[in-house]
Design a protein that fits this description.
Radius of gyration: 21 Å
Strand order of the largest sheet: 13-12-9-10-11-14-21-19
Structural class: alpha+beta
Distance between the termini: 45 Å
Oligomer: single chain
Length: 451
């Protein structure tokens, strides 16, 4: 691997460029016409403009991205997360063009990208799943039979969905009758497939995920992350370290994740996500994400391991550079996502100039960002400004450090979620880990914060 084409933008493009540079690999940034002056372009050795500002005409244009990678002489492509990172057809095009794909095989991406098939694969691997339909439901009658069997409430999920998108929760037969066609139409519009499946809905569950890594032969895990603090099923706070799970549950969960990844001869970084029911003290598979995750830094902080560099090393044919339990985890890490959104207007995106952009520093504080003071937040892409990650010897120490770090954030020119994050971190339920996936929205409704 001599020249790496980074098919992404923002903080993850900067993150990948840094990892590649430390390995002596030159990099090429891709950018739209709106991003020519973006920070991620400057961190690469070269850049290629692939199209106009709308993502569909630039970052998501498979033909343009593959042609740009070939045209600049790149011999490898890293997709980052989002955009084309879980597009099996794109991975095949990259491989077919003679370049190295930094990620799992297109077959693994395709299998896990179909949530109904992924659920079946998990069951075959002996991984617990939530009671629900065997694959996609074909019509209302089939959906009603499943709901009658598992009991309401049930979640209608898009088979091609993921990342918390394409989910509707219904509590009765009438709601199922009215919402099923809506969910199918939304799934077709958003993911190109109207297939949906049903699962029993767990109202007070924690979202726990396992970081896995494979080289096509061996698979290891790097512990768990708690991502239960969510708004509109999007993660707001992520943690790694001591999550307060029963030891036998955590061990069973990591074993199950490794078993599933091994079943598909997984290569690269991946995440197996579970719902943990604290009352029943059991867990069930949600989905597997076949890419590096936004929240990967908390795992890196606790395990002392560069996941992106490992992606590059494995992609160029090396075996995993560590064995399971070779280096035990240490301490606790927390990440929050600072977005250019306005809580006062329902968290609407807030594009504009960054006239002031001061981010925290100090011991055990890491900031991953694709912006700088004087830059411009464009209206075309996601609103993530920066990820603030802290480490502490204990969870309490990490929380104290996070409070200090968030107090140092100063942003002017656009609205941000920093005040919201400060409030969340101060919540007694968060500080005592007494929260679940619906907690944040319930709290926001009580406090009349826009959900």
């Amino acid at each position: 691997m001599r020249k790496l084409f980074i098919a992404n933008r923002g903080e993850i493009a900067v993150r990948v460029a840094r990892a590649a540079r430390e390995l002596g690999i030159s990099t090429v940034a891709v950018c739209s016409e709106a991003d020519v002056d973006a920070v991620h372009v400057r961190y690469a050795d070269e850049h290629v403009v692939v199209g106009p500002a709308p993502a569909g005409q630039s970052y998501l244009d498979v033909d343009a991205v593959v042609a740009a990678a070939k045209g600049c002489g790149a011999d490898a492509v890293h997709p980052g997360y989002g955009f084309l990172s879980e597009n099996a057809d794109f991975a095949e095009r990259v491989i077919g063009a003679g370049m190295t794909w930094v990620g799992p095989s297109p077959e693994a991406i395709r299998l896990m990208g179909d949530k109904a098939r992924a659920r079946a694969s998990a069951q075959q691997a002996g991984v617990p799943t939530i009671a629900g339909s065997d694959g996609a439901v074909v019509d209302l009658a089939a959906a009603q039979r499943v709901a009658a069997d598992v009991g309401y409430p049930v979640a209608i999920k898009a088979a091609a969905g993921g990342g918390g998108r394409g989910i509707r929760v219904v509590g009765s037969d009438d709601e199922l009758r009215s919402q099923l066609p809506v969910a199918q139409a939304e799934a077709r519009a958003a993911f190109g497939s109207a297939e949906v499946y049903l699962e029993r809905f767990v109202p007070r569950a924690r979202h726990i995920e396992v970081q896995v890594f494979g080289d096509g032969t061996d698979v290891i895990h790097m512990g768990t992350r708690d991502c239960s603090m969510q708004r509109r099923r999007q993660k707001v706070v992520e943690e790694a370290g001591d999550l307060g799970l029963p030891a036998d549950v955590e061990r069973a969960m990591t074993d199950a994740a490794v078993r599933l990844a091994s079943a598909v001869s997984y290569r690269g970084a991946g995440t197996v996500e579970f719902l943990y029911d604290a009352e029943r003290k059991d867990f069930a598979f949600i989905e597997m994400n076949t890419r590096i995750q936004v929240e990967h830094p908390v795992t890196e902080m606790v395990w002392g391991f560069d996941l992106v560099q490992e992606q590059l090393l494995v992609a160029r044919g090396q075996a995993l550079s560590r064995f399971q339990d070779q280096h035990p985890p240490r301490g606790h890490a927390i990440e929050v996502r600072l977005n250019a959104e306005d809580p006062a207007t329902g968290f609407m995106p807030s594009p504009g100039p960054l006239t002031r952009f001061r981010l925290p520093g100090g011991p055990f504080v890491r900031v991953d960002s694709g912006y700088e003071e004087g830059g411009q937040v464009p209206p075309f892409y996601d609103s993530l400004l920066a990820k603030v990650i802290v480490w502490g010897a204990t969870r309490d120490e990490a929380i104290s450090r996070l409070r200090r770090a968030l107090a140092e954030v100063e942003v002017e020119g656009v609205a941000t979620t920093v005040g919201f994050l400060r409030d969340v971190v101060d919540l007694p339920e968060f500080r005592s880990s007494d929260h679940h996936t619906r907690f944040l929205e319930e709290w926001m409704a009580r406090e009349e914060v826009a959900v």
